[in-house]
Design a protein that fits this description.
53% strand, Porin, signal, BBP2, 340 residues
Length: 340
């Protein structure tokens, strides 16, 4: 009898494990996104002059729309797909308003979890370079940095993510050249890599630099929790495209005063250099920019008042309140972002 019960228990256990092995995981459909708008006024220049900082997005004075962002994902046990749609000025600028995608497709990719440590992604996905991202809900500062604005926003191609250990990760990618999101008409391709260690990332990117490509870029992105309420983010990059390019560094100290309110500063030094053998000689340029941002959250709504000032070294790209050329521009912005 004991042998009988033992055998019965063994077969019962086998049946349970067999059911677990054959049990199908139902795919999950999820929807998320954000909507944002802002008001911006220039403190050192008239609003009707159309002056704006030389960075991506948030370029209008008065009341303006940012973008609407809708992310639809369908996730199975090992495979899935993501469709990320954007509309509005910020979305159009991020996607270069391509005729093929009608300016609304930010990301569109499929993925396969080959194993617990390896994932393949095929399609169009946002860049791995830099500290900031396109969607404003995921950035602390509402306006964006020069480093983020100078690099690619998205890539079209294939990437492989590897979890090497609990602390180390590796990503390898082959894509169309810089911001060529739809197709490559030249037969050229770009290559990317990212090595991660405990939230610190070293990024590499290379394309030939032909056809207005980006050339070579090395980028560090990371940050540290200095206390329970104080965080310091860091970004540094160097780019070279056949003798011309950019370089810079930015730091992002952020302090959480309460659960609802935080304040953060972005300080950035950014430079552009040019090939000495170009037909038209252009002087190198540098800019120092400071952006102070508050962030107040009410349920899913984020209110961000922001003060920003940029100062160029050898250029006078702005007009002051008297209509005279000047090397600095200051502005106040208040943005409202609803994330769902």
């Amino acid at each position: 009898m004991k042998k009988f019960f033992t055998l019965a228990l063994v077969f019962a256990s086998f049946g349970i494990y067999a059911q677990d092995d054959t049990m199908e995981v139902k795919p999950k459909l999820s929807i998320s996104g954000s909507v944002d708008a802002y008001y911006q006024t220039y403190l050192t220049a008239p609003d009707d002059q159309g002056q704006y900082f030389g960075t991506a997005f948030a370029k209008k004075s008065g009341f303006a729309l940012g973008m609407g962002n809708l992310i639809i994902s369908y996730d199975g046990a090992k495979t899935g797909a993501v469709l990320d749609l954007v509309v509005g000025p910020r979305g159009e600028e991020a996607t270069f308003n391509s005729d093929i995608v009608d300016g609304i497709v930010n990301q569109a990719y499929v993925y396969w979890n080959v194993s617990e440590t390896t994932t393949l992604t095929f399609g169009r996905w946002n860049t791995f370079l830099g500290y900031e991202v396109i969607a404003p809900a995921a950035n602390f500062n509402y306006s964006t940095s020069y480093l983020f604005s100078s690099g690619p926003f998205s890539h079209m191609g294939l990437k492989a993510d590897f979890a090497l250990t609990d602390d180390f990760s590796l990503m390898l990618a082959v894509t169309n050249p810089w911001d060529t999101n739809d197709t490559s008409l030249t037969g050229e391709y770009a290559f990317g890599a990212q090595l991660g260690y405990k939230g610190q990332y070293l990024n590499l990117y290379y394309d030939s630099g032909n056809n207005d490509g980006l050339g070579f870029e090395i980028d560090y992105t990371g940050g540290f929790d200095l206390s329970d309420s104080f965080y310091l983010g860091l970004n540094a990059a160097y780019n070279d495209n056949d003798g011309s390019g950019f370089y810079g560094a930015a730091f992002y100290p952020q302090y959480a005063a309460t659960d609802a309110f935080s304040i953060g500063l972005r300080g950035e030094f950014y430079g552009k250099y040019y090939d000495d053998f170009e037909e038209f000689e252009i002087d190198d340029e540098t800019v120092v920019a400071f952006t102070l941002t508050g962030s107040y959250t009410i349920e899913n709504l984020i209110i961000k008042p922001e003060f920003r000032i940029d100062s160029w070294s050898d250029a006078t790209p702005y007009l002051d309140n008297d209509g005279m050329a000047t090397d600095n521009l200051a502005a106040f912005t208040i943005a409202a972002i609803y994330a769902f």
